[in-house]
Amino acid sequence: MANPLLLNPRTYDPAHLDDDTRRLLRATVDFFENRGKKALVDSYNDRTWYADFLDFVAKEGLFATFLTPAADGAGTRWDTARNAALSEILAFYGLGYWYTWQVTVLGLGPVWQSANPAARANAAQLLADGHVMAFGLSERTHGADIYSTDMILTPDGDGGFRATGGKYYIGNGNVAGLVSVFGRRADVDGPDGYVFFAADSRHPAYHLVKNVVNGQMYVSEFRLEDYPVREQDVLHTGKAAFDAALNTVNVGKFNLCTASIGICEHAMYEAVTHAHRRVLYGRKVTDFPHVRRELADAYARLVAMKLFSDRAVDYFRTAGPDDRRYLLFNPMTKMKVTTEGEKVIDLLWDVIAAKGFEADTYFDKAAKDIRGLPKLEGTVHVNLALILKFMPNHLFQPAEFASVPTRQDAADDEFLFRQGPARGLGAVRFHDWRGPYDKHADLANVAVFREQADGLCALLLAHAPSEDQQRDLDFLLTIGQLFALVVYGQLILEQAELTGLDRDLLDEIFAVLVGDFSAYATELHGKAATTEEQAAWAVAQLRRPVRDAARTAAVWAQVEALCGAYEMRP
């Protein structure tokens, strides 16, 4: 019987989405399945540019349909629910296929936020013609520090500019029909001088330098030399250009969670199938207790990743000027889900050992690529620091909100392109996090974790970080990890209730979270900046997960059923 929680190409049918979306998603799965595993792994190993995939995208109008807002196309919309589904599928087959999609999303962000009708029409036509896009923000010297950009625009005297400068680590920069480029005016100082403009990689003043990574994807370095920027190419100026950069990342970095999920799902099928069929020392590998524990832990973490991410979609789609809760859940998907993906792969790798290095496996690619996701669109530390801004209001100042339903309707998520100024995060309000925990208090490990979450609140009230500790990012990030677990558990519980998740599995997930909270409390205990009172608190929060042999056996049966449930055709 197919596991309804994990993507399985053999049985995949997104019946909850509209017919056109359903057809396109299924066609994407069929494209990869018809190519087969040998073509998939050979093209990765040989670092072959995925021209055949981009031909498929163009032929089906895939990116055009999914990434053109309704106002700019016909029969199109920007729908976070179906975008998440496509993102997961693409990563299931390889990070490179996901990456060309991801940087197209980022490249379009400044365009769809722009009031420039010519630029919007041009982007829509390029998508319809099958082009991909790029996001020209980071630079070799400054990274993504947009305060320090060296892309200089000099007025040309006719209402336009001439742009000169380099960009680094720019995906799709080799073929992009449109590159959204961030720069600054030579004649205007400060934030008023920022400019976002559209460039074309085919223009003679656009110079492709090299691919900066050793991989199948093309992550370019390029230079503009006296590139003509016409009035119709200007997307944003001044502070609006700065806001467009940050708001684009707000939209785009959500896709990193579904990429991590897709990679882990494929790797899990392969790992469980290999381990369950393998006999060592006269015993099936999966009969060893430590193997069962590691595989069950990986499975629980993977399901938790999906539950949190699916629920976060609903908050994205319900967002508006008066409901900005997505601004917390978004860096959570980026930071927490992607690092959980690393843990899943590590657990699986401990089980399959040397098999994970073999060139003809998917796992070999997963083990390499899963590391990149926590490091894209801001590091884990940057996103943890962002998450901390929401902690006081989330834990201590709940507000009333209408219940947010599951959002899989065929609607255009147009608010994402009018988010407004990228500030005021500390003022964002949230519904009471305790509600979902109270509803599941009868589950043993939910109850234990709730004690730990209440303990965190007590720590912050009685022994809050001092001014010196608040300047010590190493100390603060551990507090951030503890807070992130509370938020993570909250949305997992909300989604579990909406989907009727198996209660044994939910309790097993929280057994994992109890252990994780204890581990971070131990880390806090050891920090040089931790006071004696805070260290005593940390020791007092250590908890053992509640064990239940019947529950563990029930969850193991779900893991065991993954053996042979999906194997990519040769």
Question: How would you describe this structure to a colleague?
Answer:
The chain is an alpha+beta fold and about 575 residues long. It has helices at about 20-45, 50-60, 60-65, 80-95, 95-110, 115-130, 240-250, 255-275, 290-315, 325-350, 365-370, 380-390, 390-395, 435-440, 445-460, 465-470, 475-500, 505-525, 530-540, 550-560, and strands spanning about 135, 150-155, 160-170, 180-185, 195-200, 205-210, 220-230, 235, 280, 285. The strands form 2 sheets. Strands 1, 2, 3, 4, 5, 6, 7 and 8 form an 8-stranded mixed β-sheet that branches. Strands 9-10 form a two-stranded antiparallel ribbon. A hairpin with an 8-residue loop joins strand 4 (about 180-185) and strand 5. Helix 4 crosses helix 8 (about 255-275) and helix 15 packs parallel to helix 18. It is globular and about 75 Å long. Belongs to the acyl-CoA dehydrogenase family. GO terms for molecular function: acyl-CoA dehydrogenase activity; flavin adenine dinucleotide binding.
Properties at a glance:
single chain; 570 residues; alpha+beta; 8-stranded mixed β-sheet; two-stranded antiparallel sheet; 10 strands; globular; acyl-CoA dehydrogenase activity; Acyl-CoA dehydrogenase; flavin adenine dinucleotide binding
Short synopsis of the structure:
The protein has 570 residues and is an alpha+beta fold. It is built from 20 helices and 10 strands.
